[in-house]
Amino acid sequence: MSSNTLTDPTKRSEISKYKEDLITDCLDGRPSFESESRYSLSTDGPAIRYIQPPNPEWEFGDPVTSTELGRRWMEGAKHDDDWEHFDAEKEETRKIYSLMISGVQPRPIAFVSSISATGEENIAPFSFFQALSPSPPLIMISAMNAPRIKDTTANIQATKDFTVNLISLPWIVQGNAASIDSPAHVSEWELAGLTKEPSTHVRAPRVKESAFSIECTLFDKYDIVHPDTGANMSSITFGLIKCIHVRKDILNARGVPDPAKLQNVSRLGDISYGLVTEAFRLPRPSWDSDGEMIEQVLKRKQTPDESKEVQQ
Ligand SMILES: Cc1cc2nc3c(=O)[nH]c(=O)nc-3n(C[C@H](O)[C@H](O)[C@H](O)COP(=O)(O)O)c2cc1C
Fold first, then answer.
1. What is the pLDDT of residues 175-222, one digit of tens each?
2. Which ranges of 75-187 does DSSP label H, i.e. alpha helix?
3. Which ligand 1 atom is the nearest neighbour of the CA of 148?
4. Ranges under pLDDT 50 in the chain
5. Per the domain annotation, does 79 fall within a domain?
6. Flavin reductase like domain spans which residues (predicted)?
7. Closest to 266 in 3D by CA, of 157, 114, 71, 128
8. Beta strand pairing status for 110-115 and 121-126?
9. 107 lies in the same domain as 251
10. Do 140 and 28 belong to one domain?
11. Are residues 153 and 14 in the same domain?
């Protein structure tokens, strides 16, 4: 941590609430990014360590409890009272939201650039985001409409295009800052410290700091209407991909992004973000190649093992 701005208590009154929260919740007692993260060394070597997958001895039909790792995992699911049940109709929306964003994770983050009908340029992150279909090439983002309709939603519906920029580690702080609910006259681009790059197929600029940007036009929209109240709660925007910009230095030999070089940041839940520091590979099973063998293995497993029965 540098000099006295963050550490000197007499200067704390001059620093923002953002910095106060950063100190108490994100810095205090934690090792520094530079000294501990594999990513801080990423220019010298791969940030992601590839290890073998768990349970390489696994055979089709083997249960999770066939390994020590699996047995320990299933310890937490032995009794009926090992579970908490949240009835969505009875819980507060806030509780369901917290459960959803912390349970359905990690989520990729779409950093969306859009322009309003009157020409204001806007950026904001959205983690209710997914790639949907390669042909037609589609992505979706979902924006909540309460307590206000997001500028991103209004802009895309008005001007019909936008860009989605994937956030890499070196600019996650700027990307996070752009989620601020700033008034219309404040430029989120300037506030976040990010750079506009003209798009080639749409009017909304892309983010120069992003190594993977997608230009989209509005393909369709879907309003999520609450079944009980009839209120329009969220808007799903479906984006038709017009062009994908990928930085050459993050490509692997197959010409697609190498996760170790792309350094995508995901959203975990609450204010936690995630990095991939370990990965493993698993082959895709194919019934054509292995179906016959799988059926034999399953049949063998169903046949009572006589020697075991005698021992019991
Ligand atoms: C990492 C991250 C992910 C977010 N994901 C969503 C999301 O999926 N949907 C949503 O409505 N708001 C999301 N938000 C909040 C919006 O970014 C925030 O409301 C922002 O002010 C919207 O900006 P806009 O009004 O300029 O569109 C997210 C915020 C962060 C920091």
1. 999 999 998 789 999 999 999 999 999 999 999 999 999 999 999 999
2. 93-103, 151-159, 172-177
3. 25
4. 1-4, 307, 309-312
5. no
6. 102-258
7. 128
8. antiparallel
9. yes
10. no
11. no
List the structure tokens of 140: 């979706």
What are the DSSP calls for 9-41, one per residue? GGGGGGS-HHHHHIIIIIITTS--HHHH-GGGG
Which residue has a Cα nearest atom 30 of ligand 1?
A: 125
In the block, tokens 């991103």 appear at 152
The secondary structure of 46-72 as a DSSP string is -SSEE-PPS-TT--TT--GGGSHHHHH
Spacing, Cα 212 to ligand 1 middle (Å): 19
Q: With respect to residue 197, please indicate whether it lies within any of the assigned structural domains.
A: yes
Q: Domain range spanning residue 266? A: 99-270
Please state the pTM of the whole predicted model. 0.91
Q: Do 104 and 41 belong to one domain? A: no
d(CA 303, CA 298): 9
Out of 21, 104, 176, 179, mutate this one to test ligand 1's pocket (max ligand atoms within 8 Å of CB): namely: 179
Q: Say yes or no: 39 and 148 in one domain.
A: no
Counted domains in the chain: 2
Q: Please indicate, yes or no, if residue 151 is contained in any of the structural domains.
A: yes
Residue nearest to atom 5 of ligand 1 (CA): 126
User: C-alpha 281: how far from its chain's center?
Assistant: 20
Let me know whether 36 and 112 are in one domain. no
Helix, strand, or coil here: 123?
strand
Ligand 1 nearest-atom number relative to CA 273: 1
pLDDT tens digits, one per residue of 243-268: 999 999 999 999 999 999 999 999 99
Q: Kindly state whether residues 184 and 39 are assigned to the same domain.
A: no
Ligand 1 neighbours by CB, cut-off 6 Å: 109, 122, 124-128, 142-144, 150-152, 176, 179, 181, 267
Token reading at 10 = 């007499």
Q: Are 260 and 277 in contact (CB under 8 A)?
A: no
- Residue minimizing CA distance to atom 19 of ligand 1: 179
Ligand 1 atom closest to Cα of residue 123: 26
148 CA to middle of ligand 1, Å? 12
